[in-house]
Amino acid sequence: MSTALIRNPLVLAFLSILVILAAGEIISPGFARGDQISKLLTVSAILGIVAAGQCLVVIGGREGIDLSVGVMISLGAVLAGNVMSGSNGAIAPAFLVAGGATFLIGIVNGLGVTFLRIPPLVMTLGMTGVVQGGLTVITRGIPSGNAAPALMSFVNEPLFLGLPGILFIWALIGVLMWFLLRRTDLGYAIYAMGSNERAATLVGVPVRFIRVLLYGLSGLFAGITGVLVIGYTGNSFVSVGDQYMLLSIIAVVIGGVSLNGGTGNYFGVMLGAIALTLLQSVLTTLQLESWGRQLTFGVVLVLLMLLYGRSKRQRV
Amino acid sequence: MSPLLRFMTSRTWLVALAALLVLVAINWYLQPNLMTPRVVRSNLSVFLPVALVAIGQTYVILAGDIDLSVGAIVSLVNVIVVSLIASFGGDVPGILGAMAIGVGVGIACGLVNGFLVAVLRLQSIVSTFATGIVFGALALLVMPTAGGSVPSVYWRSYGGTLGGVPVIYWIYGVSLLMVAFIAARPFFKHLAAVGGHRAASFQTGLPTTRIRIGAYALCGLFSAFAALCLTGETASGDPLLGQALALSSILAVVVGGTALAGGRGSAFGSILGAIVVGTISNVVFFARPPFEYQTLIEGAITLAALAGGVLVARGRRTQ
Amino acid sequence: MAPLLDVAGVAKRFGAVTALSDGALRVGTGEIHALLGANGSGKSTLCKIIAGAVARDAGVLQLHGADAVLKHPRDAERLGVGLFYQELSLVPQLTVADNIFLGHERTAPLGFLSARRKRADVTALISRFAPVLGDGFSPDVPVARLAADQRQIVEILKVLSRKPKLIIFDEATAALDRRQVAIFFDVLRELRAEGVSSIFISHRMDEIFAVSDRITVMRNGVTVASFATADTDQDAVVHAMVGDAPLRERIEHPRPANAAPARITLTSGTSRRLHGVSLSVGAGEILGLGGLQGQGQSVLLQGLFGAAPFTNGTIAIDGKPVPVRSPAAAVRHGVAYVSGDRGRDAALQGRSIFENIANATLVREKRRVFWPRQLKPRFEEALKQLNTKYASLDAPIGSLSGGNQQKVFIARWLATGAKVLLLDDPAKGVDLGAKADFFSLARGLAAEGAGIVFYASDDAELLSVCDRILVFNSGRITAELTGSTLTSFHLTKAAYGEAA
Which pLDDT band, with edges at 50, 70 and 90, does A312 fall under? Predict the structure, then answer.
């Protein structure tokens, strides 16, 4: 029982968060202070929102993965920055343009994966190069555009209960993801096709349509994240999203979603995003040299995977 | 099936070769001095590290896994070799000793990956990403910032000739021999079998775990070779040297006609794939499109090449 | 002289299920030995124990007169035992020749692969079967491109290439046609002359009598009889297989006579392995599909369900022609499909029982949003109708036994209120109690007006449940059995109609 509990990804991620927080507080008193935590949660929210799309794609199975989220975040940030140009009135169009563009790119990913049967890793890796090129076309290599002040304060300044608005958005996304996955036919179909695609087809699930949609949603979430990223930093640069590509996958995995598909939920991924952000922050606070930080990060990842990342069955 | 079709479908690299010929023709048209010995040599020496890593990556992918840590292995071997040469005093026996140790480190990294993936059964994407972080950390430990230098005898030899033939051509030649050697061993069939259908291979009595570890060890070995070449190219140490190599090696493997799901493909195709990917950026560069469109065009052509590689590797299938 | 293989008192349990309680088998050198028994009698478990793929719990196993320790298939292989696997051991991407020699590659000096030796050896192996290999078979073609019978031949050649002293053929002829079987038997006889022994499992009685020297019969995990083939006849063997249990009487089910249009009608359904099949199932009727395995029955059911659409032919449901190009379309028209291959076609592993049931209902009723408590009572009711044993709807599907899992996959369709049930060997590999539950449910559903099409690989199931049986051979209907012709005799005769 106790081992079953500790192997529950949700419990594990939550425990990790507590341990890391305690460690941070011991190392550097004030680490777990309210405003610090609110700051860390903001960073977690950005990672958590892009990981929402990644998590859908992974749950949907057939080796689902989206390596293009990083550049799509950059694209979203650049597009949003140009649309807003510092004007509060253009925040909504910024979300529309950024989310719309990345949604369409995601759909193209989905079409390639579903109809040409290109492995997701290859398709989204190839798409990364294309989007990168698109970014150069848009920016001509020179960063341009900046965030609307209202967006920046929404992301960075306390809005309600001392927490910035972005956290409420994240919480709302959490509820919507739960509703989608647990209370709609689409959510049940996603788990079904991730667990056994043939069985899902044989109960009438429109597997191909849904798979295309999942990649579209992953793009959409990345685009939204891009807008929030420019809200966080104020202005964009071409590689602003790069770091999120692998981080989003790790957040999904330590959140308890198996890369084999068909398992896991978004709450775990949210905790995974928080744990990951905290871990990085503690490692920074430790004032370790960069090798020590990186080594600890890598070793912790391997340990987490050892605890519950084992593939249950050999691939047959 | 006609003999010609049979010949073609059993050699998935033929399409990569055809693509290469077309690209070279276009490149030659755009860059009239392409076929002068100097330009050929400089192009091939740019493609060499990716080609070497891609060879190693092929064996891992053929066995149904993937290795995202190759870039970090290259960095680690590079800084270790540069540091060791310095501490051994920079004479020729010292250089050779450092190179041997570097190769050993590459193999050891591969064995660690193989242990995690094949023995502990961790998912290969995430676990090799994690070991990549660890190897990268070790590289930073050995050499926190880029620097150091290797004695001139090292980079002069690498850039020089041997028996009138440039050394990098010798390296290509030896690599091709190694690729041919491995392809002529039963081990190669076992790799493809394990990647094609692991349960069937186990039923047949193949030691699947040992085979997968072997693939990772080979990948570490070829990554170490790539590191030695890059060391000759840059003549210094850099803990971030290999960063882009993981993804570009996968690109080269897929373009070369190896199925990402495992079971079908060849390391020879991956060498061609590396050259194709490199030639694509040359062509785009010399076609002189508006500057800002270069990456987009390159990305689109690469995506098309990837899709082509996948479709070829899958082949025609009844049933 | 000690026999080549001597097995006695072997037992094996899988969890709570006793697969084998007293297995015994004695095979002499140079002998073709047939092993018979109904499904679940323990034949396959016994064979896997002999081949080292499964470890025995108790009993004696001697090979060449000495106790054998078999921890891994490799141990058995070293002692000269070869096991024919039904599909599992071929790698689709590798060529025929590479598959045959996998793990035993033909090499030149220094351990290099020798294309010349490979070609010579594979040509010699294949030559025996040359006349019956069919289109597109060559040593250089990937196995993925072969048809089922060709793969089976590759699997046979792979076992033979290892030159074992004892070969176990578990259903090695299932996908082969008559000419291929004849050659296979010639090969077995040649091997016998060289002193190689075979254990041969088949469901075709005529094959067994044609080729075997001895017959051993198993029933319920126990070896019950052993005969010299020359001294016995089919009746005696069948009697041993069936035991003294009285044959269950068929219960006549008067069909409600009504003029309503048929539940489902197919007119000249044609696909790659089906040639112009027409049929019609009325409300309240259970239509059986008989014949040997793989004669088009499953293809037909998958065609009716839209999972493998017909290239030609029309489907009408309740008298109205409807296009059924996908399972989704079939489900929305009230058609349900239950496969016998649960793991591949039905189980959503890692998900709850509730989820395993819910998807079909959501598709059928086009529910976009729902609350589980709206659906739970319905699902519980459906599971109860089948006497399903489960802890809670939230328990994972993997926590149930095979039979209870299959009940969940049937309940998934009961909950949708499907009016046409397509049952594709649904009771394959489930225990007798669960079988009885399925069949009484099928009768009950028919009585309520459902139309049921039922394929079973077990003739006894067909005969005890169906109102009418269409017998298939090579993608065509060869006979229709009703009333007084619904007997084992007629069914067997029609099944072998053209093949025997």
Answer: very low
**Is position B207 within any domain?**
yes
Supply the pLDDT for residue B316: 46
Nearest CA in chain A to C365: A185
**Domain locations in chain A as residue ranges:** 37-306
Interface probe, candidates C89, C359, C367, C405, chain A, greatest A C-beta count within 10 A: C359
pLDDT: which is higher, C251 or B316: C251
Q: With H, G, I as helix, E, B as strand and everything else as coil, classify residue B17.
A: helix
Q: Residue A309 and residue B126: Cβ atoms within 8 Å?
A: yes
Q: Which chains are adjacent to chain A, needing at least 3 Cβ pairs under 8 Å?
A: B, C
Instruction: Give residue for tokens 């709450």.
Output: A267
Region A227-244: what's the mean pLDDT?
86
Report CA dihedral (C361, C366, C368, C374) to the nearest 10 degrees.
Answer: -40
Asked if the domains at C5-242 and C264-495 fall in one CATH topology, the answer is: yes
| Residue count (chain B) | 319
Per residue in C343-389, pLDDT (tens digit) is 889 999 889 999 999 999 999 988 899 999 989 999 999 999 888 88
List the Cα angle A67/A71/A72 in 5-degree steps: 90
Cα A121 from Cα A213, distance rounded (Å): 17
Question: Which CATH number, 1.10.3470, 1.20.140, 3.40.50, 1.10.260, labels domain A37-306?
Answer: 1.10.3470
Handedness of CA B229, B233, B235, B241 (dihedral sign): negative
Alpha helix segments (H runs only) across C243-347: 297-304, 327-332, 342-345
Q: Which amino acid is at C97?
A: A
Owning domain of residue B64: 3-314
Query: Would you state the structure tokens that stand for residue C430, as one six-digit string?
Result: 């489930």
Q: Which residues lie below 8 Å from residue B204, measured CB to CB, with a gap of 6+?
A: B193, C89, C102, C103
Position B319 in a domain: no
Pairing mode, strands C32-36 and C214-219 = parallel
Contact A225, A244 (CB under 8 A): yes
Q: Are strands C5-14 and C58-63 parallel, antiparallel or unpaired?
A: antiparallel
* CATH number of this structure's domain C264-495, picked from the four choices 2.40.10.10, 3.40.120.10, 3.40.50.300, 1.10.443.10: 3.40.50.300
Q: Is A122 close to B306, i.e. CB distance below 8 A?
A: yes
Q: What is the DSSP string of C378-417?
A: HHHHHHHHTT---S-TTSBGGGS-HHHHHHHHHHHHHTTT
Of A122, A131, A295, the CB nearest to B260: A122
Residues of B in contact with C147 (CB under 8 A): 318-319
Q: For an interface test with C, which of B5, B177, B202, B204 has the most C Cβ atoms less than 10 Å from its Cβ?
A: B204
DSSP-derived 3-state class of residue C57: coil
Lowest mean per-residue pLDDT among B10-14, C138-142, C309-313, C334-338: B10-14
Tell me the pLDDT tens digit for each residue of A42-54.
999 999 999 999 9
Domain spans, chain C? 5-242, 264-495
Instruction: Decide if pLDDT at B318 tops 50.
Output: no
A135/B139 Cα distance (integer angstroms): 32
Which sign, positive or negative, has the C-alpha torsion A112, A117, A121, A126?
negative
Report the candidate in C345, C343, C339 with the shortest Cα–Cα distance to residue C456: C339
Report the candidate in B198, B209, B150, B172 with the shortest Cα–Cα distance to residue B54.
B172
Q: Are C488 and C457 in contact (CB under 8 A)?
A: no
Q: What is the ipTM of this complex?
A: 0.86
Q: What is the CATH number of the domain that holds B266?
A: 1.10.3470
Distance between CA C6 and CA C333 in Å, rounded? 57
* pLDDT on residue C16: 64
What's the structural domain count of chain B?
Answer: 1
Say how far apart CA C412 and CA C381 lie, in whole Å.
Answer: 11
